[in-house]
Design a protein that fits this description.
The structure holds two protein chains of two kinds.
Chain A lengths: L2 E3 L3 H6 L1 H13 L4 E2 L9 H6 L2 H15 L4 E4 L2 H18 L2 H10 L3 E3 H8 L12 E4 L3 H7 L4 H7 L5 E3 L14 H4 L1 H17 L4 E4 L2 H13 L5 E4 H6 L7
Helix pairs in contact in A: 4-5, 4-6, 5-6, 5-8, 11-12
Chain B lengths: L10 H9 L2 H23 L4 H17 L1 H14 L3 E5 L2 H14 L4 E4 L3 H5 L2 H7 L3 E4 L2 H8 L16 H15 L11 H18 L2 E4 L3 E3 L4 E6 L3 H7 L3 E7 L3 E2 L5 H12 L7 E5 L10 E7 L3 H5 L15 H5 L1 H6 L10 H12 L5 H5 L9 H5 L6 H15 L7 H14 L1 H10 L2 H8 L2 H5 L12 H8 L8
Parallel strand pairs in B: 1-10, 2-3, 2-4, 4-7, 5-8, 7-10
Antiparallel strand pairs in B: 5-6, 6-9
Helix pairs in contact in B: 3-12, 9-10, 16-19, 20-21
Classes of the chains: A alpha/beta, B alpha/beta.
Bound molecules: iron/sulfur cluster.
Chain lengths: 246, 478
């Protein structure tokens, strides 16, 4: 099975450690992941803001980079959702039939990390060790657009040493929403503040999610509040072992 | 009597004002979380809820895709039942028809059943200009009307008010509109409801003309249906001699059986009740019983425009249950007024642009962006309207409508990003200069992000560079 890592533009530029964690984790599970160098972005910033024409060249780059793989795995529910549910809209609009075919071919093979681990590899215990008090925020696109269900929780529950605490109002949006966070900054911050309040109320040291974009927003609010709560991507927890504890 | 939404600021500005009102935020958070819990409980009781949703969506979809036939059939059956059918292309035509009917009976006042469509067309204001007073008889609508306020929720128009505020409105305003509130009025819900009942009874018994909307219109039988919780609607529908029903053309369903899924989906989704307390159905005239003259105004007002929108037309399935408002995290914080329309929340964010078209009004164009696309609205919608997908499609329509002129900074940024993201070489060159995420954030305006949030530090090395340097971590990762 040829597996490609779609690291996402945010992870590439801001959170390389998340991509590195995916590589470490998958290698530990016996999967040699490739990194197609031509990849850039799933085009979601453009699509969700309404710039569909601008997303077309980005989509072409995407299909060129990921064509021919058996699976494309990404540490982002929202970018996986973009590939699975939005790329066809952009392709149809472009009028380019070859692009539409390429999208139809790739889209169903794009997996968010927890889906890939549970559904494709069939593991829930990935042999991780993480001795911290952690609360999990299911991001909206993972939860609703992809329907990852309780896969991330099941993976986390199998982590040794972890103390998982429930998050009140977990399935409420954190207020990030891509460009929503800047176009409607006041509302976004109000939502983020409520999310931060719930997180702080759990007494967790760490809030985990499967999307660094949401965590950037949540972490930005928590940091401004000097809360001391850290944000960590799911991949980094799952990649941690007793030998290398982060 | 009530104000209007005309001249509302764009959503982000209206939202900022609402967010600063902590009483409002408290009222809203309390009300929406209560009804959310109620809805979730009764929906969970239905084992085949998902199938019911599919059935409900199918009923509406069938009627919409065959709208012309269904409407002609409805006109025939209504007429055969003794009703007079009028067609109105827009608000002005509809209002003129209603005013004409009232005047023909020398009526200086009408009593109203709670109806979204008459608010959409501004009927009360139009009638007032003709010297006709339109009295709202639904408790929450009465509060809005007496308070000279605007509705902020589809089902609970006064959701932004608490009971102390309501008592003050009743005390100071009821007298001028009819029977005054009793002197010892408290803010107990039962006491407030009793005061409203006394106030309204006098109007029910006096009015010659009643005005209603309809939740459903059955083409096969010529039956209009109103569901309600209070029974005030039933008073308006049976006491006056003349009844005028203003019905959006999307309310039609083909067959009597089609009401089955709809009447099960609606109460659970809207009020969190298993069944609504009052279901009123009328098919034209029954001699000697109820109104002896029935008029039905079938209204377009942008609905055929919405129907022509392939992605957006599903919004016409909406049965105005308001479940999407109650789960929307944006609505919960901003309230309904920020949407600048009688249709607030997620459904308002798509329905207003669909009915009115985009590209000519900044307020309308701001609505498709008034969402974080979290998808909670789609999850609860009883007729499965994929609101997030419609929002994204409408954003594209807004962007396209503004192509060609002087590009906005955002459009320039998107073009620049598309250029960079076309080639990974360009992307890594940019990343070396600075973190791309930071670059995006700063380009959109640093204050919009950093007003209340810190930005993460840009790492020293991108993932791409790390991969190349270490051969994907195989070489020494020093
Ligand atoms: S869009 Fe759906 S959830 Fe919202 S009011 Fe209409 S029917 Fe109800």
């Amino acid at each position: 099975m040829r597996v490609a890592l779609m690291v996402t533009c945010i992870n590439d530029a801001l959170y390389p450690s998340t991509g590195q964690a995916v590589v470490r984790l998958l290698r530990r599970l016996g999967v040699e992941v490739e990194f197609p160098q031509a990849q850039t972005c799933c085009g979601q910033p453009m699509v969700n803001t309404g710039y569909l024409d601008e997303a077309v060249p980005v989509l072409r780059t995407f299909v060129d980079a990921f064509a021919g793989y058996d699976a494309v795995v990404t540490p982002s529910g929202s970018c996986a959702g973009s590939a699975r549910h939005q790329h066809s809209i952009v392709a149809v609009r472009s009028g380019d039939e070859a692009l539409q075919e390429a999208v139809a071919e790739i889209a169903p093979k794009v997996y968010e990390l927890s889906e890939f681990l549970v559904d494709v590899l069939g593991v829930t215990d990935v042999g991780a060790y993480y001795p911290h008090r952690v609360t999990y925020h299911p991001t909206c696109h993972s939860l609703r657009m992809l329907g990852v269900g309780d896969r991330p929780q099941r993976l986390l529950e199998a982590v040794r040493g972890i103390r998982l605490v429930g998050l009140p109002g977990a399935d409420e949006c954190c207020g990030f929403g891509g460009t929503f966070a800047v176009k409607n900054a006041d509302t976004s911050i109000a939502m983020g503040a409520d999310k931060a309040r719930h997180i702080r109320g759990t007494g967790a040291e760490i809030v985990v999610a499967g999307d660094n974009s949401c965590l950037t927003h949540i972490g930005g609010v928590l940091s401004r509040q000097r809360s001391g709560v850290r944000t960590v991507h799911l991949a980094e927890i799952l990649a941690s072992t007793e030998e290398v504890t982060r | 009597m009530t104000g209007t939404f005309v001249g509302m600021p764009v959503f982000p500005e209206a939202a900022r004002e609402a967010l600063a009102d902590s009483q409002l935020r408290h009222n809203l958070a309390h009300a929406t979380s209560t009804i959310r819990a109620k809805r979730a409980k009764v929906v969970a009781e239905v084992p085949d809820w998902e199938e019911l949703r599919l059935a409900g969506a199918a009923v509406k979809e069938r009627a919409l895709l065959d709208l012309e036939t269904q409407l002609v059939r409805l006109e025939e059956t209504l007429t055969a039942n003794g009703a007079t059918v009028h067609w109105a292309r827009d608000a002005a035509e509809a209002n003129a028809i209603v005013a004409g009917i009232a005047k023909a009976h020398a009526a200086t006042e009408v009593v109203k059943v709670k109806s979204m469509v008459t608010q959409e067309i501004g009927l009360n204001e139009a009638l007032a200009e003709e010297g006709i007073a339109a009295w709202e008889t639904d408790l929450a609508e009465l509060i809005v009307q007496l308070g000279d306020d605007l509705p902020s929720h589809i089902l609970v128009p006064a959701i932004h008010r608490n009971r102390a505020e309501i008592r003050d409105i009743f005390r100071s305003k009821m007298g001028a509109a009819g029977r005054p509130a009793p002197d010892d009025l408290t803010d107990e819900p039962a006491v407030l409801a009793a005061a409203a009942r006394e106030h309204l009874r006098e109007k029910f018994l006096r009015a010659k003309v009643g005005v209603s909307g309809a939740n459903f219109a059955v083409a096969e039988t010529g039956t209009l249906v109103v569901v309600e919780s209070e029974g005030n609607g039933r008073m308006c529908l049976t006491l006056p001699d003349v009844l005028v029903s203003v019905v959006g053309i999307e309310k039609v369903v083909a067959r009597w059986e089609d009401l089955d899924p709809m009447l099960r989906l609606l109460p659970r989704s809207s009020t969190g009740e298993r069944m609504n307390p009052y279901t009123s159905m009328w098919s034209g005239i029954a001699p000697g019983d109820g109104p002896q003259e029935v008029h039905v105004v079938l209204l377009d007002n942008g609905r055929t425009r919405a129907l022509a929108d392939e992605v957006g037309r599903q919004a016409l399935r909406c049965i105005r249950c308001s479940a999407c408002l109650n789960v929307c995290p944006v609505y919960e914080r901003t309230g309904g007024h920020a949407y600048g329309s009688v249709y607030p929340g997620p459904i308002g964010a798509i329905l207003n642009p669909l009915l009115k078209g985009v590209g000519h009004d900044d307020q309308i164009d701001s609505l498709p962006y008034a969402s974080s696309l979290c998808g909670a609205c789609f999850e609860v919608c009883p007729v499965r309207i994929d609101i997030p997908s419609v929002l994204v499609d409408q954003r594209a329509q807004v962007v396209d409508a503004h192509r060609g002129g002087v590009p906005k900074p955002e459009a320039m940024a998107m073009k620049g990003a598309a250029y960079v993201l076309k080639r990974s070489r360009r992307l890594s060159a940019l990343e070396r200069l600075t973190g791309l995420g930071m670059r995006f954030a700063r380009r959109f305006g640093p204050t919009a992000w950093t007003g209340a949030r810190d930005l993460p530090d840009a790492p020293g090395e991108s993932f791409r560079d790390w991969w190349q340097r270490t051969d994907g971590g195989r070489k020494d990762d020093a």
